[in-house]
Amino acid sequence: MHTGFSTLADLAALLRDLPAPDAAAHEAARERDAQLTKPPGALGRLEDLALWYCGWRGDARARVSAPQVIVFAGNHGVVAQGVSAFPAEVTAQMVANFEAGGAAVNQLARVAGARMDVHALDLDRPTGDISTGPAMTEAEVIAALRTGWEAVAPDTDLLVLGEMGIGNTTSAAAIALALFGGAAGEWTGRGTGVDEAGLDRKTQVVARAVAANAGATDGLEVLRCLGGRELAAMAGAILRARMMRVPVLLDGFICTAAAACLERTQPGALDHTLAGHVSAEPGHARLLERLGKDPLLSLGLRLGEGTGGVLAMGVVQSALACHSGMATFSEAGVAGG
């Protein structure tokens, strides 16, 4: 197991040496699926989910026993440009709500039987205004990445990452534009619910941010220049999960934008991830398409916090319960087809 990284060059080196799923476990799980008391393919995508999970966990009869939800929070200097319907103070207020168990994600994590952790990253020190220059220095982005890396519990076997940060849909839109091109308006949505004038202003800010950081083309540099501390922390946790062969369910637009920076740096870096859902934020479906991720759920969510990812935990848990708990034809005394 790698012990971590102290520079972006170290991180890039880790990304070039990623563990793969266990092919033997995947094949054994496929063979088991063929013997279960059901017609072939009758459980649809649940069967694919079970094989994917078993391969990453190295167990042909795996179950989810220690799911974890981690919510990272950060503040963004770009909020000064009027891109949000809420002030930056709301970030800290919502962190207190998470810690008190009062947010939507707390309720959903409880239903999923998941451990939930909250990490606030320097809320009193917003990132730089991305419309005029980089969000973070290398030291700052490394610190945030390491927070995410260290937040994954050693026994976690399914991970969802959530975020809270007023202004972070602006950051996510800028990342998507820098990585995949197009027009700023194609990636920019209403976020916290800005009006038409606010959406136009936000779109212009996204375009200016990418122009102001035009030298950032590598995924890790895009994350440093256009991301936020909570986005970097999510990326660090995704990488740590890969090193541990822990499957990850991506949440919404912001989490997916953070993940996309890893994929741009090293194709295949997100093979251990699935899209938990597609959100109502307009850039999310476009971003998932670019990444080749077919979402498990589409419920019109746009809350963030990890809520869509946690709902998808139930789908994965159900897939493994069927795969690992069902009887085979021979065990059940049922004649196979």
- Measured distance between first and last alpha carbons: 45 Å
Number of domains: 1
Question: How many strands, what sense, and barrel or not for the largest sheet?
Answer: 5 strands, parallel
Mean pLDDT score: 96
Look at the structure and name the CATH superfamily.
Answer: Nicotinate-nucleotide-dimethylbenzimidazole phosphoribosyltransferase (CobT), large domain
CATH topology: Rossmann fold
Q: Give, in spatial order, the strands making up the sheet with the most strands.
A: 2-1-3-4-5
Shape field: globular
**What is the top-level CATH class?**
Alpha Beta
CATH architecture: 3-Layer(aba) Sandwich
Judged by helices, strands and strand pairing, the structural class is alpha/beta
Sheet-strand content, in percent, reads 5-15%
How would you spell out the order of helices and strands? HHHEHHEHEHHHHHEHEHHH
Low-confidence stretches: none
Helix content: 40-55%
Q: Count of helical segments?
A: 15
Q: Provide the gyration radius in Å.
A: 20 Å
- Count all strands and give the number: 5
Protein name: Nicotinate-nucleotide--dimethylbenzimidazole phosphoribosyltransferase
GO molecular function: nicotinate-nucleotide-dimethylbenzimidazole phosphoribosyltransferase activity
Function: Catalyzes the synthesis of alpha-ribazole-5'-phosphate from nicotinate mononucleotide (NAMN) and 5,6-dimethylbenzimidazole (DMB).
Pfam families: DBI_PRT (PF02277)
